[in-house]
Specification:
Blueprint: E1 3-5, E2 15-17, H1 20-28, E3 36-40, E4 46-54, E5 59-67, E6 76-82, H2 88-99, E7 103-108, H3 118-139, E8 146-147, E9 151-152, H4 153-158, E10 165-167, E11 174-175, E12 184-189, H5 197-205, E13 209-212, H6 223-233
Parallel strand pairs: 1-3, 6-7, 6-12, 7-8, 7-9, 10-12, 10-13, 11-13
Antiparallel strand pairs: 2-5, 3-4, 4-5
Helix pairs in contact: 2-3, 2-6
């Protein structure tokens, strides 16, 4: 059964016209009146729904039973990442959503290859948020992680009220498993080439703790996903 995100509040018994995005999806799938779909609005759980009307520009549905299905990890993991270049950030957002990330903060660091600002940055943010929504539809998640607006690393770091964990290549750092406690954690990961020594020092001076993923050097888009998998799927959640 197709699963679609609806960016307006849902309620059992409600009749509504689907927003443009899910309406196009229904039309592409060539669904017909009487066909069943699943809708979720990001506030928890999902709803059974039935298509009542298929028009050229409007799709109307009847919202039925609410199912209180949740598949979120017990540990809310927020990742802040120096954007990898090209399509690698798209892939990171998609897979991080599948793995249960709570939110994603794209950052511009000193070694970042991809640098965006203004309208281009806003379009990229909207594009990545769309990828997160599609990944939720595919993976069965009912809560969509927020993809924040792009920020410079230094300014973002200075505004963080609570320190988190930094993926580090320095010797003597703590292995990630066992480093996270409580109900939420923020994980900082660098771009291609990693964080500079000064950037990592700036985080450590604010109380962030350096952690490692073992002896291998992982790509900028792989490292945060490996850490996320350890934290959400490795017995800590």
């Amino acid at each position: 059964m197709p699963r679609l995100h609806c960016d307006q509040p849902l309620l059992s018994g409600l009749q509504l016209a689907l927003p443009a995005g899910p309406a196009r999806h229904v039309q592409v799938l060539r669904l017909q009146p009487g066909d069943a779909i699943t809708l979720f609005d990001g506030r928890g759980g999902e709803y059974e729904a039935v298509i009542e009307h298929m028009g050229r520009s409007e799709v109307r549905v009847q919202v039925r039973e609410h199912r209180a299905i949740e598949c979120e990890p017990a540990l809310a993991v927020h990742i802040a990442v120096g954007m990898p270049a090209n399509e690698r950030m798209d892939w990171l957002v998609e897979k991080a959503t599948e793995l249960g990330v709570a939110s994603i903060q794209p950052l511009v660091a000193e070694r970042s290859v991809l640098r965006l600002s203004g309208e281009r940055a806003q379009k990229k943010q909207a594009h990545w948020q769309g990828i997160a929504i599609a990944s939720c539809e595919q993976s069965g998640r009912n809560r969509v992680p927020l993809v924040h607006e792009l920020q410079p690393l230094a300014g973002w770091l200075a505004r963080q009220a609570a320190p988190g964990l930094v993926l580090s290549l320095r010797a003597g750092t703590q292995p990630l498993p066992g480093a996270a406690g409580g109900s939420a954690v923020t994980l900082l990961s660098g771009p291609e080439g990693g964080l500079t020594g000064a950037e990592e020092d700036a985080a450590l001076l604010r109380g962030w703790r350096p952690v490692n993923l073992g002896p291998r050097v992982l790509r900028s888009e792989t490292a945060p996903l490996a850490a996320l998998a350890l934290l959400t799927l490795g017995g800590l959640a």
